[in-house]
Amino acid sequence: MTKQVAIVLAGCGVFDGSEIYETTLTLLRLDQLGIGYRCFAPDVAQHHVINHLDQAPVEGETRNVLQESARLARGDISPITELDSDEFDAVIVPGGFGVANNLSDFAMQSDSMQVLESVKEALAGFKEDAKPIGLMCIAPVMVPRLLGDGIAVTIGHDPSVSGAISAMGGLHRSCGVEDIGVDHEHRVVTTPAYMLATRISEAATGIFKLVDRIDEMMC
What we know:
Layout: E1 4-8, H1 20-32, E2 36-41, E3 50-51, E4 56-57, H2 65-72, E5 77-79, E6 90-93, H3 97-103, H4 106-109, H5 117-128, E7 133-136, H6 143-147, E8 152-153, H7 159-167, E9 171-172, E10 181-183, E11 188-191, H8 200-217
Parallel strand pairs: 1-2, 1-6, 2-5, 6-7, 7-11, 8-9
Antiparallel strand pairs: 3-4, 10-11
Helix pairs in contact: 1-8
C-alpha cells in the first residue's frame, strides 16, 4: 500500500499564506518518492490580505484560507476538519506568513501565541500515534503549542523566533539552510527553508532532506 502524507496549508503566497516554493518542492519530492498526499486547510478568513508587490496590507479585502490554498493544490483540497490521521502515515506543514497569521497568531502574540483549534485537533492524532510530523520555515514555532514542551526544532538561527520557541517550552537547535533538525524521540523533523534560503535550490536541499527523512520514519 502506498504511503500517504497529509499536507496542511495556510493560504497561497509567502506574505499571507503558505510559501509557494516550499509547498511545491514538498509535493514534488513526495511524488518523486512515490508517496501519495492530500492537502488540507482551515475554512476560515485570512488574517489579512497582502499585496505581494509592495508587501502592504490591502484594506477592505478579505480572502478565505481554504479557497486560497486550493490554488496551490490545483483544487484538490479538503477542509482541515476532514483530516483523519488514521488515513495518513505522516503530516507536513510548509511555512509562509500564513502559518503565523492564519494557522496561529504568532505574528501578533509571539510567545503568547495560540494555534487554531482545528489545526491542533487535526494534528493530535499524529502525535498520539507517534507518526512523523514535518514542519518547515516558520511553522516549527507552533510545535510547543501543538505537541508539547521539550521538543527540539529548528527555524535556522533567528534569535527572536528561536527565543520565542524557548520561552514557550520548546528546544531550538541552530541549523543551516540545507540541513534538517530531527527529534527522534518525538518523531518531528524541521528545516529552515526560506527562513534562511536566498535561492530556491538552497530551500530545495533542506526540504528534500526533510521529506526523505519523513519517508524513512514512516512505517
